[in-house]
Amino acid sequence: MVVLANGGTDSVRFADSIVDEFVPEIRERRKNWAPPPPVTTSAIYIERALINPSGPDAGREVVVLANLATSAQTLTNWRLVDKNARVTAIDATIESGQSILLTLDGTGAQLGNQGGNLMLQDSHNAQVDVITYTAQDASVENRYFRFRR
Question: Is 75 left (phi over 0), alpha (psi -120 to 50) or beta?
């Protein structure tokens, strides 16, 4: 809505055909757009990760999931998804107030040393938690990085 000089208002809308004609990138983005997965409230979260282990990363990167609940939480058919949509399946139980370590084998989700993000999804592919980290966060070798909220 636009406020006119005389105090009135008028709606302004670009026709899709004009946008498509003059901005092909927008047309391409529209074609590939999908709504983000729904966000859920969960007692499970991504606590920290060993982003940059000594030596080759495959089989040495670790993600730590924690449980804030006062009861055990079962993560059947949950998954970690990295910035390149690589997936690591999770089937585990986390006891009350405890954490578990998930070692990434290099065939699923991976933690890039130049920064990235990691999403935790439940068995319905709803987003439970997501973290983002920078190259500076990953720069310290062989040390866990704690994700602050």
Answer: beta
Q: How far apart are CA 147 and CA 131, in angstroms?
A: 7
CATH class of 44-146: mainly beta
Residue 36 CA to residue 18 CA, distance in Å, equals 27
Residue 65, strand partner residues:
46, 100
| Whole-number pLDDT of residue 149 | 77
CATH 2.60.40.1260 domain span(s) along the chain = 44-146
- Residue 113, token pair as written in the block: 């040393």
| Burial class of residue 14 (count of CB atoms within 10 Å of its CB; 0-12, 13-18, 19+) | exposed
Do residues 136 and 120 lie in contact, with contact meaning Cβ atoms separated by under 8 Å? no
| Entry pTM | 0.73
Q: Each residue of 12-42: pLDDT tens digit?
A: 554 555 555 555 665 566 666 666 666 668 9
